Amino acid sequence: MCRLALKTASDPFSPYSVLTAMEAMQEGYDGSGLGLLLRGLNFADYGYRSGDPILSGIAHTEAAMHRLNGFMQNNGFELKYDHEFDTDLREIEAKDRFKYFLQVYKLPTAWSNFDQEEIEKHLMLTRLALRKDGEEHGDDLTVFSLWPDVAMIKEVGWPLAVGDALGLNDGRIKARVCMAQGRQNTNWGINLYACHPFFIQGIGSMTNGENTAFLPIKEWLLGMKEPGYLGYQSDSEVFTHILHYALKKLKLPLEAYKHIITPLNTKELAAHPQGDFLRGLRDVCRRLIIDGPNCVIASLPDETCMMVMDRKKMRPGTVGGKPGEWAMASEMCGVDAMIPDRDRSQDFQPMREHTVIVPPDRKELKIWSQLDPYPLTHAA
Amino acid sequence: MVATRSLSVNPRSLTYHDLPWIVQHREDRCTLCGRCTSVCPTGAIYLTYRRQRLPKMALNTSERGNSFRTFVGIRQHTDLGHRCIGCGMCAMACPNEAIGPQPNANDERAKFLDTEKGEPAKRGGRRNSRESILDQIIFNRISMLTDPALDAGRHEFYMNTLLGRVLPPEEYLRRQAAGEWIPPTREIFPFIIGSMSFGALSPNMWLGLLQGVAYLNEVMGIPVVMATGEGGCPPWVLRSPFLKYIILQIASGYFGWDEIIRALPEMQCDPAAIEIKYGQGAKPGDGGLLMWFKVSKLIARLRGVPQGVDLPSPPVHQTLYSIEESVMKMIQTMSTAWNFRVPVYPKISGSTSAKSVLNNLVRNPYASALLIDGIDGGTGAAYNVSMDATGHHIASNLRECYLDLAAQGKQNEIPLFAAGGVGKNGNVTQNGMALIMLGASGVHMGKYIMQAAAGCLGSERNRCNVCNIGICPKGITSQDPKLYRRLDPDTVAQRVVDTFMAIDTEMKKIMAPLGRSQSLPIGMSDAIGIADAAAAERLKIRYIC
What we know:
The structure holds two protein chains of two kinds. By secondary structure, chain A is of the alpha+beta class.
């Protein structure tokens, strides 16, 4: 079973501290992989200007790295910073790694007339084009994200060992949000794209458990012909895309996510103040109902973090912390390891109707229940 | 050798060996009570007196001679009009286990002669084929690795489906904000009592079904609905709160619709849906047929016709030119009648052209669903050749329609319902869930309900199957009060409830190991497999061995 840890803090911290916390949950993974997503980045060697896109991934060969650089250059991206990981490739299990890249670019000048939505679309298309390029060249290039203020790393191996191999303990990269997943390879082959967190247009999520309703959900997402809805090497990737669909395509508030993936039953809806609207939402998004058991942890571009459970709540999840610093983990010991000096009596384990949200100000947890009134004019 | 002309044989002559069913009678057990002959629906057996010569063999010629013994026994008619249909009512009535029908293991010569007066053979019931691809499908994606297994008896399950047009989410939100019309949907149990008309079924059967359905909805909380078939339904039902459990069917004869239109202003609630029948799986290209035997006074009144006449519905909706036009006009007309509050959908027979109809529906914003009825569907009356050899199997037909919708991303918008052979060999939940995982939003079942709820004697081995001529020995499909009084509506209602409760539990027993409980696994084709490579390839599911 995968183990999940998310830490969000007003002051940037080293992602290595989260990897250390993962050790506390080590019984739950087999070292087949690590996924990291960092937001709110702070580089010791570089003053990052917010809004500049960051490309992260792995070039497996020198040729791939050259192609990547050429591609970015030809598409008008100007390289501003190329983070050099202090890498010890001997410590990495896989042998086909040439370079872990984390590059900050300046947006192409040709995009200057684009509105925000167009910029976001083109950033995604650029990422997908690079991914396709790698797939067409024997998988020699793996691209995880191209987005402002987001860095991602995925690698096969024991999480802490991967962190050591990439020199993450040197304090040169810090972040305000760190999502980490220690992966247990289950029903899917070891494939870097199958590793959580998954990412699309600034939205990242990771999940434990098994998504038993995977195939019908995947078929519906694929039927939308949305360029970013692809991959699905893992059954958990659909959670990210559903969140993206709810927020970006349907333009619904974060609270709607829970109503889409685990809608209330008819009896509960009959008693809900916006029951008619929510019943309609349940019906039109019926193919996105998950069946769990899952705990989904996500973060958004504005550094909002959240956690939801499946409706059966057969995966645990704990949130704890203090103003300015919060942790979410699939195990309570994970929260302990990330924020030991908190008031444990204030820890919260969401029930099946809850969405736990840590807003960007990180002052307090917002615990929202599906049974609460829905916060939107849609339902008026 | 005896002269030929002394034997009473002609081209039509049959003996009991030539008939599909042979009555076996044990004279040593028979008490001559006569119950079997009185209960036999076709009058196939009769009590007869026979004389047996007992020659006296003696050396002395004067002492030779004959004496005679007279005995009585049960014998079988050999003319086709009185042939044994294998229903077994004689065995059910016999107090002494002295009689019963046996299927003829030899060639059935009778089949060659069943064209009396130039009329091809007709029957009611079923296709008489035990083959079922659905029976071969198994559920094999068992959640063993990461899941604690769900407990079918303890966890909360949500297994209802939607009947009605579902908008794309973006369009739903736009219409909500703009206050525009949102198509009606019904949340129903995915196993639906399929269209069986009030003329085809006896009043007691119909009443029992409705009672059972009402109990399931109102007491058990299982939202089962039933479809009427052509011919409307009794006036009191139209004006009752039970109408909401009923799908009213309109077919090419429009029988019963005078009564429905008259009742419209007095209806307490809307019907569950309107089904427009364009075709029936058992007899594609044929309209409905209610033979004169069954057009009783009540049926005549409901249908607005004289008593005792054949009521054939035309094969097509005569006033319309093509199915595209027909579907569009009829769906809009029906929607208008209930002010767009009731889902309206067409039912077609399984066909290689089903996809074309479906694609047409996708573009019709008022079409609520599509019901495809496969070749194994039942009927009250049809020509044998239609029932036996015309139509399309439901599994592949449904699957290709679903995949076509999925390729367009429309699989949530037009729910597909499947019918035709669901539970034909008794495996109703397994068959229905297999169809659901192939892409159906729900299934309709008719014959199974008659068998399970009313003890219908029909079987895929050509047992009984005389629903067409009003002699149903159980009183299920007869309009003769002497026969339908045999059927107690309360018992039928009880059996309906028992049947659906069992389906409900079996669904959980299928879904729990798959790790599914929160939504019906529509299109979850990764959960099923079949040990037939060709079928697996055609259905795009896993081949297992």
